[in-house]
Amino acid sequence: MSIAEEKNDAFNRLKELGRNKVILTRNDFFIPGWTSECCAAWREPYTKENISMREWAERLISNWQGKVHFVTFTEAESKVCKNFLDFSSVLAEKVSPYLVEGTQVDLVGHSMGGLDISAGVINGVIPFKYVKNVITLGSPFHGAEWGGVMKTVSAASWFFPAIWAIVRIGLKKRYSYYHFLQLENMNPQGETIRAFNKTENRVKLLESVEKLYTFVGTDDDTVKQSAFFNNYAVPADLLGAKLNAICFDGATHSGQLGLPQDPRVVLNIMRIISS
Length: 275
Description:
The chain has 275 residues and is an alpha/beta fold. 47% of the residues lie in helices and 12% in strands.
């Protein structure tokens, strides 16, 4: 099938789900990515042609108001987070009231949100016994190239202060200093990403969850190949048992063709969280 046919088929399958309504048995959390503290990628349509996850939840899930949670971060919370490790602790505080003995949750993260989740499970701030599925969409497991660019600009600013001043002036309408710092700490060669990607941490994440789903867009020019959870040092049998990587032709990182609002992605998420 062509990409258009795949999307149309997924859309029709979603409508079919809506006829009988899905009843969720677990709490499901949707976590935003870098600079998207308001969770817009999950809650608001990118364009008039898009349907957000929130709208799909309203259409398809009878108990969505009690079971579906769109996580947001305040400006104050984001300001004190220099990287996704810090965000994982803030996320844990938001999730913890729903972690009840004998129950499990699903955690779905777009972009850096997937790193927030993964770091929380690895570091134990989100106890793994409560986590069933982790789903990541375009999450830069191997870091973001723009993080390396920001690291270079930051280093150069010590010798050429005007460079940093120009960057700040050009981007200050949308981004703040702490956003730059968060991006810089996703530098593929940086200490944060390298520590996060140690084999023991990869193994711990896979062993801690029932399933890790990584959704990747072929046209995602933001994180590119970094969204693949490939680590050849991790035992192949563990990868085979715990990792499910799905690639979506034509999907981008965000925007009209972005992963969070692609009907093929939404259909897969619905199948996972309702199982």
